[in-house]
Amino acid sequence: MGTPLAWVLFNVFILGLLALDLGLFHRRAHAVSIREAAAWSTFWVVLSLLFNLGIYLLVGRDEALEFLTGYLIEKSLAVDNLFVFILIFSYFGVPAAYQHRVLFWGILGALVMRAAFILAGSYVLQHYDWVFYVFGALLVVTGARMAIRDDDAMDPANSRVLRVARRLLPVTVGFRGTHFFVRENGRLLATPLLLVLILIEFSDLIFAIDSIPAIFAITLDPFIVYTSNVFAILGLRSMYFLLAGIIHRFVYLRYALAFVLVFVGVKMLIEDIFHIPILASLGVIAVALVVGVLVSLRASRGERGEVLPDPPPTPGEPLAGAAEPGADVLPKHDEEGDSNDTR
């Protein structure tokens, strides 16, 4: 579907929107309000649906359904990614005013990574049919692991990526505004905000391993896979600020997401035996997600005097007992200290 001109025009359009976002609307660091997040979320969803309508009018019904299904899958899996964002921001004690900048650059990096993944995946699937079944099996295993995983065991402090970054990068004590690097006393130093960005990028890399094969189960058209991914990711920042205060209520959503992954994985595995129409796939996925959200919201209302777990910290609020922002992400020194360290 995607001609070279379509690829160029789409990417120029998206880069223009991102430049407008950062350069005009979010030039100054500030805490994103619920109202602002809701407005931006609405904007990205409406823009995505208009693009979907364009595909329907210019290309056809099936391609439009493929885009919508891929967009829905990616958007729903992105909600699971928000849990990780909250953990990372809370662990580092990132002020709310800095979070938008981190997510902006994190999502820009995610677009580049996913474009590479999608082009590579499309090439492999076109030349090696057996990889299709590998992707299907991967999704089934990933869905099963998602259903049984222990969320309490997720701790940024245990990240190997963070440990490597600590060893390789000299890091300032505390943040330096929205800067990722600063020069102090003649030394170029990273700030804790860069470590946050690294973890955000790595978490999206892991989630891309799930989401991109899932969309290939819907369509093999790289342009539809890419555009549906892009539109879903672009709304991720505003969705984070919109849902961060209530995301703890989605207690059963991960089981719905696990079902979706298993469903599309099985769809890939049985494609040669039984073809599930795209409209049926869209219906199954939509129903599963709606049921997951509704059951979660009902269960988290605290009926019958149930004691619900405490919600996660609000964006920018450090975990209870945590050190000052950026303090416990520094490489450890010996007791006598390091005279060359910038403090």
What does this structure look like?
By secondary structure, the chain is mostly helical. The protein has one domain (16-26, 33-302, 312-329). It contains 11 helices and 2 strands. It has a two-stranded antiparallel ribbon with strand order 1-2. Helix 2 (34-58) packs antiparallel against helix 3 (61-92), helix 3 packs parallel to helix 11 (278-299) and helix 6 packs antiparallel against helix 7. The N and C termini lie far apart (55 Å). Residues 303-343 have low confidence and may be disordered.
Quick synopsis:
The chain is an all-alpha fold and 343 residues long. The protein has eleven helices and two strands, in the order H-H-H-H-H-H-E-E-H-H-H-H-H. A hairpin with a 2-residue loop joins strand 1 and strand 2.
State the separation between the terminal residues, measured CA to CA: 55 Å
Strand content: under 5%
Helix tally equals 11
Q: Give the spatial strand order of the biggest sheet.
A: 1-2
Oligomer: single chain
Uncertain spans: 303-343
Number of E-type strands? 2
Level of helix content? 55-70%
Estimated structural class: mainly alpha
Q: Radius of gyration in whole Å, from Cα?
A: 21 Å
Biggest sheet descriptor: 2 strands, antiparallel
